[in-house]
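Worked example (supplementary).
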Amino acid sequence: MDGATDMTTRPFIEVSEVWVPEGDRLVLSKGTYGDLAEFASVSERESFARGEGLPGKAWDEGRPVVLKEFDGSYFKRTEAAKAAGLTAAVAIPVFAGTQLKAVLVTLCSDDDSRMGAIEVWSGEGNMLTLEDGYYGAAKQFEFVSQHVHFQRGQGLPGGVWGANTPLLFRDLGAGYKFVRSESAGRAGLTWGLGLPLPSPTGRPYVLTLLTATGTPLARRFEIWDARAARVGTANEAVLIDGICAREGSLYDHDTERRIKAFQGPIGQVLGTGLPVVDASAAGQHGYRTLVALPIHSSREVTHVVAWYC
Amino acid sequence: MKKLVVIGAGMASGRMLEHLFDADPAAYEVTLFNAEPRGNYNRLMLSPVLSGEKTYEEIVTHDEAWYADHKVTCRFGEKVTGIDRDRKVVIGEKGEVAYDKLVIATGSNPFIIPLPGHDLEGVIAYRDLEDTNRMIDLGAQPDAKAVVIGGGLLGLEAAAGLRLRGVDVTVVHIMGHLMERQLDEAAGYLLRKSLTEKGIKVMCKANSKEILGEDGKVRALLLDDGTELPCDLLVMAVGIRPSTALASEAGLAVGKGVHVDDQMVTSDADILSLGECVEHNGAIFGLVAPLYDQAKVLANTLLGKPDTFVNKEVSTKLKVTGCDLFSAGDFAEGETREDIVFRDPARGVYKRLVLEGNRIVGAVMYGDTADGAWFYSHIKDATDVAEMRDTLIFGPAFQGGGTADPLAAVAALPDDAEICGCNGVCKGTIVDAIKGGAGDLPSLKAQTKASGSCGTCTGLVEQLLELTLGDSYAAPAAQPICACCDLTHEDVRRLIKSKELKSQPAVWQELGWKTPNGCHVCRPAVNFYLLADWPLEYQDDLQSRFVNERKHANIQKDGTFSVMPRMWGGITTPDELRAIADAADKFKVPTVKVTGGQRIDLLGVKGEDLPAIWADLNRAGMVSGHAYSKGLRTVKTCVGTDHCRFGTQDSTGLGIKLEKLLWGSWTPHKVKLGVSGCPRNCAEATCKDVGIVCVDSGYQVGVAGAAGMDVKETERLADATTEEEAIELTTAFIQLYRENAKYLDRPYKWVAKVGLDWVKERVVDDLDSRRALVERFEISQSVYRKDPWADHVENERKRYAPLADLTLEAAE
Amino acid sequence: MSWIDIGSIEDIPLRGARVVKTPRGCIAVFRTGLQEAYAVSDTCPHKGGPLSDGIVHDRKVTCPLHNWVFSLETGQAQGADEGAIETFPLKVDGGRILLDGTSVGNKSAA
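After joint prediction of all chains, the assembly is encoded as:
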């Protein structure tokens, strides 16, 4: 790896990509690669059939997939990933009913200091268990999560499952004392975003992104509610919760923040129904990269969640 | 400074102090007592803190710094033990403090059902941060169980929060369905279903009998049917009672709550009260909106300003993520009432409106609350909904007007789509500039030139800003004239009239201009506004005019000018034509062109030759055609009864009369007229600023047409029976336009802003107003109806020549 | 410097300009105050517009063709436009305008 780089400034998520179906293959629509220009150019030339590679697997199996060992796996860009120092990847398929809209892929790299978590939980019966997750250096937290389960309504993953809506938790370590909190506190994890991932298999999936102040996965989270039940017939979304390292709490009881389709990056997600990754910093409240993900029902985009780094 | 003591630092008193300090920070010296050891925080947001969706720090409304800034003496964690009204002193645990005015804001106490065992360890209410932390701590215990008595707003929020913390929760409610004060049975059923999906157990029609304990600590709740619900914590959320002990001990009038009048004053003139502890006209309060109204009234009363508290309708929202619920008004059933119900079982949606007479009196919604606010406003306004009955339940969208995505069209444009036609700027260039930091219209104009010329594309450019920046960009509501000031054109026009500003220095000074004498944008506008409003007192300033109007000729791209003499009504004579031809020869004019305005243009005249060519044309009896001005340009005519077999009136004659009347006046933007002899409209009068179509019965006067960037047909102003009337209407309209429009707005833009009805009221309907307008126009014309060419030839001639010619000397 | 008297300041309208023909080309003399004036090139570097026909404000002038704004003190274009016009030494003495002859190419020097 690049030993000379200052580890504390490398982002937890190094690469974010949006793959969209074109005909019967997935092609790259947009990606943010930071300084990894070589990996970027390799990716631009790549495409995946259904079931092929990591994005293709997520598409085919209708569920999010975590991959932490590229060598000898179905991962296609292994050489380029190694050269770039990337060691783990998470593929998040975005389905509207049974139709695949896009696959969001995030890639991370291992080191001794970056704490954070990207977890995939799946439900069976009355229990939600960890399918897999990437934890950076938060090994103990990883261990605890592997040995815990949540019921409907319990904790962040269970709460998202029970309400079928994204949730943003503060204070994972200090105030939030359920089961994993002690190890979360030691890992310095502060905020957690949980979102439901609809799957054509019918099985409930929940994605959680947990971030630590020192090595943040993201410095700003936003949850936008776009349901007709909330905004009426207009194609708009209302900010229902958010937190930012600079601005603090984003939710204001008195003033409603509303966005129209195509208005800024969030509006873009709302209008196209596709995830957006952007490194242009325009409309990003002073941050470098933005990833915004839509959550669909079979009828509409119900929510847009965004994380900024 | 008078002394104000406030007992209770809750949301009501907090809001009241905000109003007080905003209005007059020096009115009172404030001492604030709070039994809780902290300042004001948003108590409504305790539930998200309980669930983990917020931290306490995020919900604090007034922190230490705020109290320090407003010099409030804070006595937090100290109880008030008594009020001595004779000595006007408040007695706290740590000492006394005197008051000139006292505000009691002691809030309410949670009601604890006096069941056996209610005083066991582990039985709590849900009121403050301590209760909340107690519940949060329960989550740390593995396999913790809790029972919540009370299936109202507060009890359900407690249950939801506890569940998110991992606790096994059961809600026990005595009534048949949850939240029976705000919901009917159907909505209550859906709410219960949603809570069950979160793993919360709900028991309705369950009556609590006894709280069982072990070693002084709670272990279970016993219901009267024998069921035992084991629990480590029991939360009582069954209601609140106004906290009136302090007030009644002090001898104030107290009923269910502390009695206050419409000004929030108690039975003691120096003691006021607000919040959950008061009773006003028999009502007590549990929701926050009326308390904020009370806070405003009380603050005004303290400042001696008259105000009255009126108890209004409120709506309810449940703060449980994933439960969308809305309730407002009164939805009890009644003989005179009827219901409109909508259900969508697949989506779990239930909506019910209760109507009495033709008005909505109550609304309950579960699952789809998007229209809540709209129904609520109809309840408050007691709107007659008879017309909307059939589609009422579907909300505002069905009452007309769908919504398309306003930004979708611009989003779909490719990067090379041309946005600004005048300067050839495409979408990609603009978006790149925005991403590069040009975050508003002025900076985009400066960097890309987009929107810098005619301004038609401004709307599109603003959409691109919204597209790229999202909601961090908000199109400014009203654009100031330019960077020299903060006022809009409309503001400046109004102020010039109301403050009687009659000179440029008066405007710069009185309206706070940021520059010594304006700029090329605002000075021409201000110059026009001054001469339009004060034609006799203000002298037109040539140096505030764009070069065309200063030199009375149109500047061309190579710095030469175009010269266009008037041809009244498009009628000329052989002598005039000869004079034009001679001038073209003498001054070697490169191009002679016939214009759409029915006259002849001499293009390419050198600046220094202007006075000479004018003098020649003047000698032939011709005057300036004002082809360059913001004034009357032309009156196009077709031949009427003079020659044409279809002519109904003398359109040419009328056109010439109008041109001779109106020429020379300055207007907000150019004015073009047309008079057609019959409805065949050969003069194209129906796309002019004022267009008259002659008919057998008289003259149809139309206004606000356009045939430039926008094409628009005229709208009928009035029908005149005589030529005099047609002229009068036209003159009055133009004067109204001169006195009111924004500089550079053509009449059609101005009429769109003010509305044709407004114009008609002043020009057509009100005869006095019409005559006054005509009179004022004539006063203005007494100054301006003259040939500028002749004026310049006589007075300004030398200014067209160079000041000095140093090339002659060098030749020696 | 060789000062040439080119006329009275009253010959120029306040916030207006007059042109002076010189061996170096046309110069515009702007009167920005009762006894204050500036001399600059009359030709706009953008597309050759006559600056003497532009609106004068404070100590700046706006080109009448495409609204480029120039400082009469430094000759620099303002705002986002890049370019400059030449400035010439000038002083107002007892109501008379004196222009520096050598800078405008005048051979009859003292």
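Two points are worth noting when inspecting this output. Residues 261 and 281 of chain B are 8 Å apart (CA to CA). The interface with chain C takes residues 446-447, 452, 515-520, 523-524, 542-548, 550-551, 555, 557-559, 607, 798-799, 802-807, 809-810, 812 of chain B (CB under 8 Å).
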